[in-house]
Amino acid sequence: MSAISQTASFLPWLRGGREQRLRASRDQWLLRLTAAFIILYLGITLVGPLLSMLLQSVVDTQGNYVGLKNFYQYLGTRSLRQSFLNTMAVGGLVTGIVLILAFTFAYGLTRTCLPAKGLFKVLGMLPILAPSMLPAISLIYLFGNQGVIRELLFDNSVYGLPGIVIGLVFWTFPHAVLMLTTALGNADARLYEAARVLKLSPLQTFFTVTLPSAKYGLISTASVIFTLAVTDFGVAKVVGGQYSVLATDMFKQVVGQQNFTMGAVTSVLLLLPAIIAFAVDAFMQRRQVSLFSSRSVIYKPKPHQTRDALFLLLCAVIALPIVVIIGMAIYGSLVTFWPWNMALGLNSYNFATFNPQGWAPYLNSLKMAGVAAALGSLLVLISAYVVEKQPQGSWVKPVIQGMAMIPMAVPGLVLGLGYIFFFNNPDNPLAGLYGTLTILVLSTVAHYYTVGHLTAVTTLKKVPPDIEAVAASLKIPHHKVFWRVTLPVSLPALLDIAIYLFVNALTTTSAAVFLYVPDTMLASIAVLNMEDAGFHGPASAMGVLILLTAATVKLLWMGVGQNLLRRTQGWR
Amino acid sequence: MKPFLSLENLNKQFGQFAALNDISMTIEKGEFICFLGPSGCGKTTLLRMIAGLESCEQGQIWQNGANITHLPPEKRDFGIVFQSYALFPNLTVFENIAIGLRQQRASKVAIEQQVNHWLETIGLPEIGDKFPGQLSGGQQQRVALARALILSPGLLLLDEPLSALDAKVRIHLRETIRTLQKQLGITTIMVTHDQEEAMAMADRIVVMNHGVVEQIGTPQAIYQQPASRFVAGFIGVMNFLDLAGGKKGGKKGQPHIIGVRPEDIHLTASAAGSADSLQIPVRIERTEFQGPLLRVECQLIDCSSTLRADIPIHQVTTANLTPGTETCVWIEHRRMQHFRQEEAV
After folding, report:
1. Does residue A427 sit at the B interface (CB-CB below 8 Å)?
2. Inter-chain contact B15–A469, Cβ cutoff 8 Å?
3. Would strands B32-36 and B204-209 be described as parallel, antiparallel, or unpaired?
4. Cβ of A485 and B52 within 8 Å?
5. Residue B309 is part of a domain; what is its CATH number?
6. What CATH number labels A23-56+354-568?
7. For B103, which residue in chain A has the nearest alpha carbon?
8. How far does the CA of residue B24 sit from the closest CA of chain A (Å)?
9. Is some CB atom of chain B closer than 8 A to the CB atom of A569?
10. C-alpha–C-alpha distance, residues A231 and A250, integer Å
C-alpha cells in the first residue's frame, strides 16, 4: 500500500507534474535524469553500504535478528569497553593539544607580521600529504626501542597512548590550521579600531573581539579533529602497542577473526562519537551570526616587534617537530638496515625484496587516485549543479544535500566495512566490483565527498543566478551554458577538488584496508603491511614516496595550474 | 483587435503562502507597463510567470494570440534583463551579445554587423573586447539590454533593472531604456519598487500589494485618483484624516477617511469659510526646507492627527510659520479623496 502511494507521488515528478505545471522542456528532462543518476549513485556507493552495515550489527552470525544483543555483549566485554574509553581519551587529548597549537600557529599566520610566513604555511601543511602511518613509523625511529632520542622519554615507552597522541597531533594539525586560518582570517578591522577607540587593552581586545569571532571556527575545528582522531587507524596500528582503540579493534575483528558482526557493532560505536561531534557542530553553526559582512574591512596586522618575535619563536617551536618527524622518516628510509647498517642508500626503495607486489602498489595508488580525482571532481560539480538548479520546494535538493553531508560523519573504516557487506553479497548485481580497483575509487570518492560538495556549492553560488533564465530567453540549452559558462567559471574550484581527492586517495588506508586484494594493493596499504612484517625502512620509504608524490602534485598545481588559470581566467 | 498579452485569473501558491491571487490584465502592443509594489507583493513572481520561469497553477497567459501558459521559457518570445545583470562572466562583451545569434547559426558577417550596431546603440562602441567584470554597473546593464534585444523579441521583461545602480546612472539609463523602447515599439514590462521610476517611465502602472492588483492606470490617474488607501499611501505622500465625527465634508452614513496630498493644503491666517473648501484650525509643529518648497508639519487643534503641507517657497515669506503658531489650513473639496474606514491599516 505504502509502496503504491509512494510511486503515485513519485510519478508526477517524472511526468512533469500535474496538468497545471509547466510543460517540461528537454533541459528539465536532462536535469531530472542527472538528479536521478546522482541519487542512484550516492545510494549505491554510500547509503546502501551504510545501511547494510547497520543491519549487520543487529543480526547474529546466522543472520537472525537479535536486536541490541550484540551491543550488550560488546559492552559486557571488559577489554572492549576499555577500548571505547581509550578511544575517547585519545580523541580528547588530541583535540585539546591540536586546538592550542593550531590556534597559536594560525594566529601567527593571520594576525602578526611574522617573517617567513610562506615557509611556515608550507611546513604547517606538510603532514596532510603523508599517510597517518608515516609519523608513527618516524616516532619509532625517534623514540622506539632503538630510537635515536629515546632518552627524552625517560624510560617511558612511546608505544601506546603517548605515541598515538603525538602521531595524531602531527597528522591532524594541518586540518586545524586550515580551518582556523580561515576563521581568524576574516576579521573586521573596524571592530579592532572600535576597540582601540574605547581604549581596550590588547588582552581585553583578544577576549571581546578576537575570540568571539573565532568561536564557531574553534568549535567546528574541535569537531573535525575529534572525529579524525577517534576514527584514525594507521597511527594506532603502528605505534599503539597494547593500547587498544576502537579502530584497531575493528580491524582485528574483521581481518583477524573474520567476525563481521562484532566489526559492525564496533562500527556503530565508532559512528556514534563522530555523529555527535557532527551534530554539535551543525547545531552551533545554525546559531552562528556572521560578524563579517560585505561591508567589513579586512584586518591587516601592522608590524609589532615584541609580538612578531614572540610568534616567530612559538611558530618555530611548533614547526620544529614537523620537520624532525618528516626528516626522520626520510632519513630512516635511506638507512640500509636500521640500526645495524647505518650506511645510506636506496636499498629500502627496492620494494620487490620486501613485498611480493614490489612497486605495483605505488602504481595502483597513482591510478586509483588519478581516476578518483578526475571522476570524483566532475561528479561532485555536477551534483552540486543539480542541487543549485532545482526549483524551489523540490525534494531532490534536500535529499542530495543530505546524502552529500553523510560522509563527513562516517569514518573510512566504517564505510569500508559497509562496502564488504553491500558488495560482497552474492545477491547484489554489482558484486563483480568486489576486489577491483573500481571499488577502491568508489569508496574513496564517497569517503571524501562532503568537502568537495561544499566547495562546489560555494563556487556555484558565485555564478550569476539568472544566467539560465537569460539563456532560455536566447533559446540556448542549459547544458550548453554549463559547458560554456558554469564549468569554465568553476574550473579553479574543480581543480582544487581534484587535488584534494587525489591527495586523500593517495594517503588513505581506512576504507581501502578492507577492500583491497593482492592485485589492487595500494601504496598506503603496502606501508601498513611492510611495517607489520617488521620492515620499517621499506614502510618508511613507501610513506615518503606517497608524501613526495602528493607534494609534487601540489607544487605542480601551484605552478602549472595557476599558470593555466591565468590564461583561461583572464576575465576575473 | 486582440491585446498583445493577456493574463487571465492567474494564481500562485508557495506552500501556504498565496503569492498571487486572481491576477487579470491585458497589455497592448508597444505599451510600457510597470509592476509596482513593495517587496513581497508578487510583482517579480508575476514577471517570472510571464517568462515561464515559474509554473502557473491556475489561469492562462496569452501572448500574440497563442496560449503560452504551459510553455517552457525557451519556447516563448521574450528578452529579459535582471537586476544582477546576469552577464556571462567569462565571455567578452561582444560574445555576450553575440551568443544568441550564434545559437541561431547566423553568419559571421551578420553577427559582427549586428553586435557592432547594438554596441553603438547602447553608446558603448569601444568595449567589445572587455569582460563584464571590467565594466561599471551601468555599462553592464546596457550590455545586458543589448543582449536581451538582439534577437528582436516581441516582449521585453525588465526585473528591477535599475535598482543596483547609483542615482545619477539610474536616471540616465531609464531615459535610454525609454527612448529605445519607443524607437523599437517593443512591448515592455518592468518590475520596480521605486514609484518615481514607475511614474517617469510607464505608460500604465500596475500597483500590487499582497499578491493582488490594487490598481491599473496611467501614472497621472494613479496619483490623482488612487483606487485604495494603499495606493494613495504608496504613491507619493498622502495625509489621511479621520474626519468621520460629523465634520464638514464628511459623507454622511459610513465612517470613512479623507486623503489629501500635501500640495493641496493651503495655509491661511483667517478662518474665512467657503462652500467649496474645508477649513481646519491647526498648530504649526515643525518646518523643513526642501528647496522649491517648504514642508510644514502641523497638528490639528481638536484631535491628535497631524498634517503635512507643502508650501511653494515664494509664498512662504508672507506667512508666520514659527512653531507653536496657531493658524488655519483649507482644502478644496474636489482635492479630497475618500476611502472606506475598514481599509485603515
Report:
1. no
2. no
3. parallel
4. no
5. 2.40.50.100
6. 1.10.3720.10
7. A476
8. 17
9. yes
10. 11
Domains of chain A by residue range? 23-56+354-568, 69-291+311-345
List, for residues A126-158, the tens digit of each pLDDT value.
Answer: 999 999 999 999 999 999 888 888 888 777 888
Q: Are residues B53 and B173 in the same domain?
A: yes
The reply to whether B224 and B248 lie within a common domain is no
CA distance A523 to A546: 7
Instruction: Give, rounded to a whole angstrom, the gap between the first and last alpha carbons of chain A.
Output: 55
Name which CATH class applies to A69-291+311-345.
Answer: mainly alpha
Instruction: Name the one residue in this structure whose C-alpha cell is 520596480.
Output: B192
Task: Give the Å distances, CA to CA, from B144 to A465, A479, B102, B106, B271.
Answer: 14, 21, 16, 20, 59
CA distance A556 to chain B (A): 25
Q: Based on the domain organization, do B29 and B95 belong to the same domain?
A: yes
Domain boundary residue, one of B234, B255, B284: B234
**Is the Cα dihedral A372, A374, A377, A381 positive or negative?**
negative
In order along its 345 residues, chain B shows pLDDT tens digits of: 789 999 999 999 888 888 999 999 999 999 999 999 999 899 999 999 999 998 888 999 999 999 999 998 989 999 999 999 999 999 999 999 999 999 999 999 999 999 999 999 999 999 999 999 899 999 999 999 999 999 999 999 999 999 989 999 999 999 999 999 999 999 999 999 999 999 999 999 999 999 999 999 999 999 999 999 999 999 999 998 876 544 444 445 566 788 999 999 988 766 555 678 888 888 999 999 888 898 999 998 877 788 999 988 887 766 678 888 888 888 888 888 888 765 444
Q: Do B75 and A25 touch (CB under 8 A)?
A: yes
Note down the domain range covering B72. 5-234
Cell numbers for A258? 573474520
Query: What is the ipTM, given to two decimal places?
Result: 0.82
**B interface residues, A as partner, C-beta within 8 Å:** 14-15, 48, 51-53, 55-58, 70-76, 78-80, 82, 84-92, 99-100, 103-104, 131-133, 144, 147-148, 151, 153
Q: Which residue of B has its CA nearest to A21?
A: B55
The residues near B187 (Cβ < 8 Å, ≥ 6 apart) are: B4, B5, B27, B28, B29, B30, B31, B154, B155, B156
Greater model confidence, B148 or A26: B148
The domain tally of chain B equals 2
DSSP assignment of B87-102 equals --TTS-HHHHHHHHHH
